[in-house]
Amino acid sequence: MSTAALERLAGLLPPERLLRRPAELAAYESDGLTAFRTRPLAVALPETEEEVVALVRHCLEWKMPFVARGSGTSLSGGSLPIAGGLVIALNRLNRILKLDPRQRTAVVQPGVVNTQVTQAARPFGLHYAPDPSSQSICTIGGNVAFNSGGAHCLKYGMTSNHVLGIKAVLATGEIVSWGGQSRENTGPDWCGLFTGNEGLFGIALEITLQLLPLAECFHTVLAGYRTLEEAGDAVSAVIASGLLPGAIEIMDALALEAAQAAVHAGYPEGCEAVLIVELEGPREVVAFERGKLDAILEASHPVEIRPARDAEERLAIWKGRKSAFSAVGRLSPDFIVQDGVVPRRRLGEALRRIAEMSGETGIRVANVFHAGDGNLHPLILFDGRESGALHRAEELAGRILKMCVAMGGSITGEHGIGVEKREFLGEMFTSDEIDCMQRLRSAHDPFGIANPGKMFPGKGAPALSHVGLHPLEKAGLISRE
Prior knowledge:
Layout (H helix, E strand, L loop, with lengths): L2 H8 L7 E2 L2 H4 L10 E2 L4 E3 L4 H14 L3 E4 L16 E4 L6 E5 L4 E4 L5 H8 L4 E2 L12 H7 L6 H4 L6 E8 L4 E5 L10 H5 L7 E9 L1 E2 L3 E9 L2 H13 L6 E6 H11 L9 E9 L1 H17 L4 E4 L3 H12 L1 H4 L6 E4 L9 H15 L3 E6 L7 E5 L6 H18 L18 H4 L2 H14 L26 H4 L4 E2 L1
Parallel strand pairs: 3-5, 4-5
Antiparallel strand pairs: 1-3, 2-20, 6-7, 7-11, 8-12, 9-10, 9-11, 13-15, 13-16, 14-15, 14-18, 17-19, 18-19
Helix pairs in contact: 8-13, 9-11, 13-14
């Protein structure tokens, strides 16, 4: 990078909002996938849309790679910096610009934290439905980039189902506005295309979200099972009955142990798996569905059924589930989180296969996942201080992803492809399909400066492989711990 380019970059922001020193850059070297790290050239902290646009246009002029970042909770390396590139941190663009309770919409900046939208909407009897486990810290911009879901996506869908409009600056420097306040748009679904693009098109500046009425009441049930497969089969029975719960989640014994130690959730002891099912809606509807659900769960032969008796017990159940990922850190110094998807009818089979693979490799796996849509979240435990431990964990993660595809599922439900799963894209899509995706990317970013090296396969060894280096490592763009 030339001296002139750096001088021009330094002129776009006050010195205190352009981080250059090693100690300042350390916090941005990795996202939630800590197995990969690299140090960017600089980190920019814009506070206005105009500053974001100016930074993107600077990167375009000098062909400087840039990565947009929110809270860095990505678990696939999606916001991993690029060596010699710029990180544009959006946390200071954190205002809710408009909340219209009559239209049930909110216009927010990308740095707004997920839960803040519901907090602002709650006085009007509304909420924002997508609720990823990191919702207390993850940002709406990141949710849009990765099309995040959450525990209640079974009933309410993913982020893409709740984005009505987007204002963005593309990697070409062009400012675009798609959609708006209406839920009935015509023409191409540009918002749907942008949502889930993993930052390869540009940066969202404003996002218009739909809000939904708060549920009148909830019925939340814990059911403990002797095996993971029994819990998975119970999920299939609930869905086959025609019920549409707000959420269906499963945690296995390892995850339960961690959550209990972390937040004292009070889960049943001695079970290999716990199923959480939550009904929500009008009181009359929930009362009817409750009887149906109770009969289904009784027939699934659980060790114990424990309905939440009040709001406090319901919150305790969800606190344990939401804290499970971080709580597993009590069991292992390091872990990889996967998010492959399998058809619900094969959920029990998939869980049994994961247990078999865990036994074969001697690597412990904790399972926490969105059972309602078959979105697995196996947490593969390892100690990075042991030679080869990371590679063995990655190999197991790769086997699990290939199993998901072989069962008719997907390599990702909500975490995205990022760096981690680039080489597995070809397991799901043909070369022509991948070429079509790359053409779409090039239309928005012809010079490939927006989050380069993510999502698409490249030459060399895959990220999830015990053999050799990742291709971006070979190029000196990223490094592992």
